[in-house]
Amino acid sequence: MVLDLPLSGGCICGALRYRVNGLPLAVFICHCRNCKQRTGSAFSLSMITQRKDFEQIEGGTIWRDWPGGSGNMHRQHLCPHCLTRTHTEMLAYPDIVNVRPGTLDRPDAVVPIAQAWTSAAHAWAIAPDIKRFEEDPSDVQGLFKEWRAIHR
After folding, report:
1. Is residue 65 exposed (0-12), middle (13-18) or buried (19+ Cβ within 10 Å)?
2. Is 2 helix (H, G, I), strand (E, B) or coil?
3. How much is the pTM?
4. The pLDDT of residue 70 is above 90
5. Residue 126: which of 31, 56, 44 has the closest Cα?
């Protein structure tokens, strides 16, 4: 499934817009407690993107640094008007941006390659046809390669 790039997205009110100009590294589901609390849902979706490919094209963000499930600091970016969280910088990994796929104009364009922290998942929320990891995946680079091979 080849992705039609760039991928564009933004917040609910339209004041904040971004574009992903290159092929993302991968898309993941996370079932950890931190992600569930932050989203107010059963899991979180993450589209790992190289920073050089991420471009904020309209509007600005407010941000807060907050520890992620790993304990590493994450900078959460939100629209200052509608408070939609569009992307996150994982400060321990300065070359990537974690885009929230639900904020894409076409969120169905990307499909997760794996789901992490299924040990903390609601049984009904586990995607049946997507690889599962009870905690963090052991070979993230391998998952990146696999996801990118599918979408080239």
Report:
1. exposed
2. coil
3. 0.93
4. no
5. 31
Instruction: Determine the structural domain holding residue 20 and report its residue range.
Output: 7-151
Are 86 and 77 a contacting pair, CB within 8 Å? yes
The DSSP element (H or E) to which 58 belongs, if any, is strand 54-58
Domain count, the chain: 1
Structural tokens at position 73: 């600091």
Q: Which two tokens stand for residue 53?
A: 């490919």
Three-state secondary-structure class, residue 37: helix
**Which DSSP string corresponds to 84-126?**
-EEEEEETT-TTEEEE-GGGBSSGGG---SEEE-GGGS-GGGS
- Pair 71, 77: CB distance under 8 Å: no
Q: What is the pLDDT of residues 13-31, one digit of tens each?
A: 999 999 999 999 999 999 9
Question: Tokens in use for 37?
Answer: 């609390």
Q: Which two tokens stand for residue 134?
A: 């009870």
Q: Does the residue 127 lie in any domain?
A: yes
Q: Is residue 124 assigned to a domain?
A: yes
Q: What is the mean pLDDT of the chain?
A: 94
Nearest to 87 by CA among 143, 17, 142, 23: 17
CATH number for the domain that contains residue 90: 3.90.1590.10
